[in-house]
Structure formats: C-alpha cells, structure tokens
Design a protein that fits this description.
single chain; alpha+beta; 60 residues; 35% helix
C-alpha cells in the first residue's frame, strides 16, 4: 500500500492534509500514487503493516 505525503502530513480520503496515517488515502498501485503525487506536488511513501515494521526494527 502507498500513500501521498505532503509537508508534514498525508492526503486524506477527502482530499485534505492530515497528520494521521490511518486516515490517509491509500493506493494499491505505486504508479497511481506517483501520478497523484506529481499532480499535487507530494511524494509517495510505502505503508507497511505493523508486523512488517516491527520485524525490520528487530533486524536493525
């Protein structure tokens, strides 16, 4: 899953900026997220599950 990040937050499902990652608009396809981010001047960030993030931290 991917989301679009702008300034210090994310774009929500209603098109507004939010700091809450849970309310962020999610894209299944990275290309769709990149096209949207290019239009609004944001960047794409990959969202992982909590278990994936914990596993990565344990490795480090």
């Amino acid at each position: 899953m991917y989301t679009v990040k702008v300034l210090h937050g994310y774009i929500s499902t209603n098109g507004r900026r939010t700091r809450d990652k849970e309310c962020a608009r999610r894209f299944k396809d990275m290309r769709q997220a990149e096209m949207f981010a290019e239009k609004i001047g944001g960047r794409v960030k990959e969202l992982g599950t909590d278990s994936e993030n914990r596993a990565k931290q344990e490795i480090l």
